[in-house]
DNA sequence: GTGAAAGCGCTAACAA
DNA sequence: TTGTTAGCGCTTTCAC
């Protein structure tokens, strides 16, 4: 292994000089710089990460805590994760992967052993036991999602309340008077997951405000469950002509179910999804949708963390406004419906 | 921060004694052990990861390199990743997440800086440029998948050749004489991805051996692409009554397409998939399938790595035998077909 | 603009 | 069974 001492000897300078050339933390004559850089290349020198971390009290590693639980849509999580890794690398950091099933102890472990400099925590519940832990940790953290009690925490998320509302507004603007929200599996609601709850809130509030009917139901992932749920829904509320879906894996089968039930999209039934753009665009017809800006949220989380590591402040809560893109799955309410509500 | 010296002082012993109590690397009297453990708890001591890594030349971190590319099925990758993390934790290791787009340089970076002790590399291509790099690295690695030139590397994978063959055998045993393989998107084949190629090989060889027709076609992920591909296939080979699918995301839409084309599963068309069990079980009808043992492969990869870190040898290539589970999607060939081949 | 040297917190000889 | 101490390779004061 080539050490900084080897480089110093080879370049005929002190080890501190090599260190400073590499970090740029003090001014070095161009001549010395070049000599050192040449030696670095000649010897193939790589700074030892542990030694550097020990001396500088910085590991240049961020922790990323991902959920492993049921009902989460995996591709979206991967988008978050890759955005976090990619952005971290831009700032010369690496990412340590933790699974949520290590629990609050896992966070303490990596933080208190100085394995990492900061943490990104995904899949935050409304009453998240990790909140108190993160508040006490001697290092910055950013939550993707936000708990009820978010004081002293830094949180980033899509504004799901606004997202739910914008779906209602879009459909109401098209003349629909009876709407339903097909949500995540009930386990996700029972876990008090923030995004699911908040979409529901936004949906209900907007329905009330617009004076339209807004019913909500969870939905499991199997084809049979989807079929049963939708049949039940249309049985109970035959006037429904607008559907909001927040549940990526059921989107394909749902289109199927509607076809099987003889409801054309969008002629008989308008559909707006809360999902990744590529999923919306892959369907037939393409889906009007509110996008989940996973890349932006992941990148933003890391940027906030870096800012905090540099000693600056960042906003406590960043809510990204939703963007609804109208595509082929939403259209004017069928005529008969205007009075049916 | 509480250091080992604080603990030693508090317990009235030498720092080395504390170290040895914690590592168990030498015999300590029960009495001293308890005193030290009490002090550790009383002070809330956590060993500093960098200091430990620097002194012991072991970071206790494994690198996991995941692909970010098109055509990979994300949920399966997540299964690998979580199996790797979970197993690593069982052996008191953490996992550093790298994306494949850092390329061979990324591997060298984390290895030569001693950020990690060993590497798990996923999504290996037949001619993988990382093979030579991994061979030269001063630390063990395990590949999930295997390249053409695998000498000196440790590889673990499902035996995809056998998987492709077992699908053919299953269908041939049921009397089917004309089969098709609906594969991954063509980009995956063009990348010379091992698992896709090998399934194809196994499929073709078995078809030949069984004396049945075996045609193969890649398939993209959009609904339209699936529809077109299948129509074309059945146009060119009207006698086809057995389908093998290696392409998870198209499974749902494919069932749809078959329904739309008026082919009942399994009465008119038998279907066997190479996919995760839960995906197979979620369909209607449930799919006969060869499972992708992601958990086992991920766990096995880490176990091999730990073995190597301990200085023992492991087999160069571990191929897990495929398991085919017959479910509702395969049945006897339709009568007319027995002579149609 | 550069060098010397004192740590960072731990492990593992070596010594007793 | 336990203690003493020399590093591990780097960063960063302090001194010039």
UniProtKB/TrEMBL annotation, chains A, B:
Keywords for this protein: DNA-binding, Transcription, Transcription regulation
Gene3D superfamilies xref list: 3.40.50.2300, lambda repressor-like DNA-binding domains (1.10.260.40)
UniProt cross-references to CDD domains, sorted A to Z: HTH_LacI, PBP1_LacI_sugar_binding-like
SUPFAM superfamilies: lambda repressor-like DNA-binding domains, Periplasmic binding protein-like I
UniProt-listed InterPro entries: HTH_LacI, LacI/GalR-like_sensor, Lambda_DNA-bd_dom_sf, Peripla_BP_I
Signal peptide residues on this chain, from the entry's feature table: none
Region (Disordered): 320-341
Species in which this protein is naturally found: Kribbella kalugense
Taxonomic lineage of the native organism: Bacteria, Bacillati, Actinomycetota, Actinomycetes, Propionibacteriales
Transmembrane segments: none
GO molecular function: DNA-binding transcription factor activity; transcription cis-regulatory region binding
Protein name (database record): LacI family transcriptional regulator
Domain HTH lacI-type: 2-56
């Amino acid at each position: 292994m080539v050490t900084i001492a080897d480089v110093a000897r080879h370049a005929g300078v002190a080890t501190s000089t090599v260190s400073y050339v590499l970090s740029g933390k003090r001014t070095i004559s161009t001549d010395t710089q070049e000599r050192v850089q040449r030696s670095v290349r000649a010897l193939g020198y790589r700074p030892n990460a542990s030694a550097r971390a020990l001396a500088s009290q910085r590991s240049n590693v961020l922790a990323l805590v991902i959920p492993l639980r049921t009902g989460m849509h995996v591709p979206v999580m991967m988008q978050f994760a890759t955005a976090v890794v990619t952005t971290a690398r831009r700032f010369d950091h690496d990412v340590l992967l933790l699974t949520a099933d290590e629990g609050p102890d896992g966070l303490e472990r990596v933080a208190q052993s100085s394995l990492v400099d900061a943490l990104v925590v995904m899949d935050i519940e409304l009453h998240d036991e990790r909140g108190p832990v993160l508040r006490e940790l001697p290092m910055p953290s950013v939550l993707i999602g936000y708990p009820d009690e978010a004081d002293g925490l830094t949180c980033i998320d899509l504004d799901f309340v606004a997202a739910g509302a914008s779906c209602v507004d879009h459909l109401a603007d098209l003349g629909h008077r009876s709407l339903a929200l097909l949500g995540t599996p009930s386990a996700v609601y029972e876990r008090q997951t923030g995004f699911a709850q908040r979409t529901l809130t936004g949906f209900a509030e907007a329905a009330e405000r617009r004076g339209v009917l807004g019913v909500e139901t969870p939905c499991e992932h199997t084809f049979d469950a989807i079929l049963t749920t939708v049949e039940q829904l249309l049985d109970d509320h035959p006037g429904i002509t607008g559907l909001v879906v927040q549940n990526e894996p059921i989107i394909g089968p749902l289109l199927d179910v509607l076809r099987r039930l003889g409801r054309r999209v969008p002629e008989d039934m308008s559909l707006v999804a809360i999902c990744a753009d590529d999923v919306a665009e892959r369907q037939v017809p393409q889906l009007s949708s509110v996008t989940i800006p996973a890349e932006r949220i992941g990148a933003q989380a890391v940027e906030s963390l870096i800012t905090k590591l540099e000693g600056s402040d960042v906003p406590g809560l960043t809510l990204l406004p939703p963007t609804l893109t109208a595509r082929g799955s939403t259209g004017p309410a069928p005529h008969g419906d205007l009075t049916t509500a």
